[in-house]
Amino acid sequence: MNFIIITIAILFILFFGSLYIIRILNKAKLQASLDKTIKSGAKQDAITTLLTILQKNPLDTQNRMALVKLYMEEKKFPEAISHLDIMLTKSQRHHYFNPLEANKLLGECYFEVKNLDESFKVFNLLRKNNPNDPYPYIQLGKIEKKRDSIEKAVQYYNKALTLDLDNIDILKTLGVLLFDSSKYPEALNTLQNALDKNPDDPEIHFYLGQIKSIYKQQKEALNHYIKAKNDQRFTADSLLNIGKILRSYNKLEDARKVFVSFLKLTGLKRDDLLEGIYELAEIYLSVKDTQRAIELWEKILSITPEYRDVKSKLDRYEQTRTNTLLKAYMMSSRGEFLELCKKIALTYARNVAIVRTDIGQDASVEILVQAVYKDVGTTIFFKFFRGTSNVGQLVVREFYEKMKEVKAKHGVCITTSEYSSDALAFSEGRVLELLGKKELVRLLSRVNRKMFD
User: Fold this and answer.
1) What is the pLDDT of residues 130-155, one digit of tens each?
2) Could you give the CA distance from residue 254 to residue 185 in angstroms, rounded to a whole number?
């Protein structure tokens, strides 16, 4: 009887022992598969495997933490929060459970989903429980910065710095926060301290460049911007500032090259783009290349019609160029005057072809053209006068008779002065236009633009 009982006991032990071994082997196999999947970078497959493991063993804290970290890597923060909550409520006494790590990750996840209040609660509790750990203060500083409470953020980072004096990231972030709150002396000292610990950090160089520019220490600012420009986060702003500093030193060719490089960057903010074009135009203006400056001003106005003083600059230089042509119209030699009159005629209508020209004894010019005027093919007879006396009816009448002789269908008289009242009365009801100085200036402006297109 005893033999039978012993035999049954042995078989029982062997049976359940086999089950246990099979379970251990399956678990090991699954774990090995998981490790291989994670190493291969197939994160979604790893997540699926981990969920399978946790379904069989909900208290497997190590694998649940691995799942949380994978979710965070995949930016699936709500899912990570859900599993962290499970651990914090059900795994407090588990041998492998680390509540400090879990709470830190929970606070980070809340921050990522912009639930700043919950994130603050978590890190504030960690701060109270671990007053000598700088990490909660850093995170509380990040939260206050996100809330635009810069003063509070500075306080938290200051506290974190007292707990970790050599932490370059704390120093740098604190320096930038002080800069953002316009506390430039404190920012300068903090960032200089950070630079001493990390001389090649482009972010530190950029903000030191900003502070040095505010203090008008342009040479030092230039050196900092040069060291910051290779980091794409600061390339655009650094180049813009480098160009402006070089221009202030009258190193115009060097500044021009910098602004040309700046304008080739992709993804420029509109304000930066406009400022870069404006600065480049100022350089061309300084070296007397007015046409290039004007082209850049026109480009600015095509983006923002009321940008700074561009419209007034453009109007002033356009008027100067037009006035130069008006002076040429009134004072040039007979041959030069004829050429200018031709240019006016060519811009008066579309598809203009000059048929003949003639200069009178009084230095007036006659030009007969074929053209498309007001969408109709026609012949136009021009008469150009220059002088200070008003053009009277007799002169206009003679021109009208000449117009009929050359069989022109449209006549245009142009003068630098005006017309008498009887001349204007004569032109009424006839295919005859009498254009005075104001209209002449408008035509010269059109010629001017045509010359530089």
Assistant:
1) 999 999 999 999 999 999 999 999 99
2) 31
- For the beta carbon of residue 85, count every other beta carbon within 10 angstroms: 12
H-helix segments, 304-392: 310-331, 334-348
Q: How buried is 397 (Cβ within 10 angstroms: 0-12 exposed, 13-18 middle, 19+ buried)?
A: middle
Please tell me the distance from the alpha carbon of residue 160 to that of residue 133, in angstroms, as a whole number.
8
> Counting every residue, how long is the chain?
453
Residue type, 69: K
**Cα–chain-centroid distance for residue 410?**
52
Three-class SS state of 359 = strand
Residue 47, SS3 per DSSP: helix
Task: Specify whether the backbone of 56 is left (phi greater than 0), alpha (psi in -120 to 50) or beta.
Answer: alpha
Cβ neighbours of residue 91 closer than 8 Å, sequence gap 6 or more: 59, 61, 64, 97
For 217-254, how does the pLDDT look when each residue is reduced to its tens digit (9 = 90+)? Answer: 999 999 999 999 999 999 999 999 999 999 999 999 99
Closest listed residue to residue 337, CA positions, set 288, 387, 303, 374: 387
Query: Scanning the structure block, which residue is given the tokens 């012949």?
Result: 379
Beta bridge partners of 376: 373
Residue-by-residue DSSP string for 165-183: TT-HHHHHHHHHHHHHTT-
What are the φ and ψ backbone dihedral angles of 94, each rounded to 5 degrees?
A: -70, 140
Parallel/antiparallel/unpaired status of strands 376-384 and 365-373: antiparallel
Residue 113 near residue 78 (C-beta atoms within 8 A) = yes
Q: With the C-alpha atoms ordered 379, 385, 391, 396, is the resulting torsion angle positive or negative?
A: negative
Summarised one tens digit per residue, pLDDT across range 296-324 is 999 999 999 999 999 888 877 776 676 77
Kindly give the interhelix angle for 218-228 and 235-248, rounded to the nearest 10 degrees.
Answer: 150
φ/ψ (deg, to 5) at 91: -120, 20
* CATH number for the segment(s) 333-452: 3.40.1350.10
